Structures
1.
Amino acid sequence: MDSISPPFYMQLNFEKIVGTKVLYVYESFREAILTGTLKPGQKLMSIKQLSTIYNVSKDTFEKAYKMLREAGYIISVPGKGNYVIEKKNNKLSVLVLCADQSEVAKSPLISAITGIARITVKKISEKSKTNTFSDDVVNYDSVIILLKFNNKQ
């Protein structure tokens, strides 16, 4: 299990990112894994190494690695490091946000993707804050928002 070649890491550019540094690192690694730049079994640079190379807080890389672990892209081996893993389930992971969970069962879109996706449904309300699901969203391949409009006149 070889370390990642430095050219991949040199592509990280914290100067012009949209969103947080944590999400930028997460998405950069996720994209590299999905495109095959990072392969199953490949060892990732340590958090300390990344922090030193980019002069970015270790906390940024710790949070991004945690998100990658939770999403099933990497595994931590105590005393050894972090490694890219092969996803056991090739199904897409889809988060469905909805105001009325009964609408999910009626949705033709949800019915169509049921066989090819792992679907997680979370209820939202008008009182939900905009960032309530921000941590959840990055752990899914896709997010679907089902809106039910009240047609009462």
2.
Amino acid sequence: MATITIEIPDDLSEQLTQLGDRLPELLRQCVQQGVLPAHVYRYILDFLTSQPTPEQIAAFRPTPEMQERLSTLLTKNQSGNITPTEIAELNEYERIEHLAIMLKLGNLPYLTRPSNS
């Protein structure tokens, strides 16, 4: 394993120290390309930054293209004909679904509380 020395601000150093053993994995995630196409992440970010109403949050769904891809991945997974890359893609869709469920249930209060504007 390589050792890298960098200079960082003290406040960032404190935050990184709290990450402990998770730091190498978090760095890996930062430098690797996203598992899903960029437009999938953009779709989700555009929705979240639009300050959606509770009704819009409840109605939020993947695009038809995303639904079709997810269906394909699930079928391949069930038949045992899924590649490691496709497994990673399926896992990413599952993480996104979990976040959407948390958002819809109000478990992400900083996204679901009314704005004061």
